[in-house]
Amino acid sequence: MVEAVLADARRQSLWGDAWQRLQRSRMAIVAASLLLLVCALALVGPWLSAYTVAQVDWSQPTLATPPSFANGHWFGTDANGRDLFVRVWIGTRMSLLVAVLATLVSVVIGVAWGATAGYLGGRVDGWMMRFVDVLYALPYMFFVIILTVVFGRSLVLIFLAIGAVGWLTMARIVRGQALALRQREFVEAAIALGLSPATIIARHVVPNLLGTVIVYATLTVPQVILFESFLSFLGLGVQEPLTSLGRLVAEGALEMESSPWLLLVPSAVLALVLLCLNFLGDGLRDALDPRQRR
Amino acid sequence: MAAVSGVSFDVRAGECLAVVGESGSGKTQVLMACLGLLASNGTARGSALFAGKELIGANERELNRVRGTGIGLLSQDPLSSLTPHLRIETLLTEGLVDRGLATRIKARQRALQALAEVDIPEPEARLRQYPHELSGGMLQRVALAAALMCSPQLLFADEPTTALDVSVQARVLELLAKVRDRGAGVLIITHDLGVVAGLADRVAVMYAGRIVETATTDGLFAAPEHPYTAALLAAVPRLHGDAQARLVGIPGDPPQPSARPPGCAFAPRCERAVDTCSESRPELTQCASRNQLGAVQGESGAATTARNAPITAVACHRPLQAAAEIA
After folding, report:
1. Beta carbons within 8 Å of A185's beta carbon, 6+ residues apart
2. What domains can be seen in chain A, in order of their start residue?
3. CB-based contact (8 Å) between A16 and chain B?
């Protein structure tokens, strides 16, 4: 009987296995579906409306019209008379893009740096982490502003700049984990097998860190979204007529009393994205632990 | 603080040396020192030669030429020594593939062969599994297959049977004997004298970080020299013998590495101890009484040596057999 069950169980890769386990977590699936829906809307949403992102609707009696199905402004218009539905999805698109790319940059640099420092240990670790400490000591903002001033304003630069400062915490977290993993017997066994340090780091150490990395990455995304909105507010980030969720929330907060939908709609989308990312991160962490079987 | 000192032994090709001793006597640390795997707060001094190459103080690069291909390591707990998220296939083949010794396909065939050699049923299916999907006994055999993938000349087996149940132990020991008979040297660490009797050609008994006695296996069981060895043997239950006889334990505990006595470390627990024992430390000296018992001589191909280590020696002021002769 047991034999039969074992034979039936499909042998899959780590990722295939993780995917199966992820599907068993209902919250994670709901979160992933909602996130997909938001992404889809961010991609096609702007075309669903009759208006464009910079178009001012002069036909309305006031510039800031409340949400209404009658006039086609499903989310209302902003203080300049532009359609909020279009602007929210354009903003979501921009925020997600910045968040995902910047997080990716920070994950790649942070994991590589932290795992190398933690695994090699000793003097190399000391120097690598002191370098991180020095960068930590530099004011975040100052660094990004210098980058944008020197290289000019561009979207790519925003990704790089945010990612380049975001990897510091990631490197520290990963380094601590790698330090602990180095003591594990399977890493010792890999050394005893004569594998090169690069192979051991990439194959035996980093995959064991992924749970932590993914959870931290899902926490980095909201930070990046907020950081981007701050940059935009300073005039260094996304420029008009393009927008981002952070910008929309900031602008909406100014009109909170007269036109609350300007704050409520982008905040709701932002909150939804962040919540979904958190649940998805939780689900992924559980799914990626190969020994967790229920 | 010296956890281990003055340890010296050699292993020849096609020979099995067992290192025996209580937990904490420093058995594992000796192996780790040879492979450059000591914890970062540990240092190794002295000399460990493998096929003429010095291992102590060698850099990582030189060590990596010996690790895996020259010396294989089989550890006590296979579940924690096999990386949990990698398939058996990757674990078996990575040593060959990463060194460029074989293509992925060749290495896979070699892995199938290696699994068959250690009597794993359905090797094809096993390659696709993860370590946690196999039983302990099967895993230890997989770990053995992994250690043998690069055909090492010398195998370090660190308590390979401790975590296994008795029936599986026997199979693992058989496989180790097979490895030895094929011409590799085997160094097995154990505190199970049954394992020693069944597998080893020679034995080194360690106590508190020192070798207190070396002997051929037959010699050791027939006529132990060191009181500690004798006490160990007396503590083993026997199948044939007086069923009413009580097993004799050794009173007391081994000393902490930080608080070892200046004389013989075993003196406080030794029935035969005299004043000299706790004052001066006995050196490991060849014992005249047993030299003629015969040594296993193999060709000295693979050998982790401190040269000129005598086959039979004891570190004791009042060895048992010498006393027996006088009496």
Report:
1. B75, B77, B80, B81
2. 12-287 (1.10.3720.10)
3. no
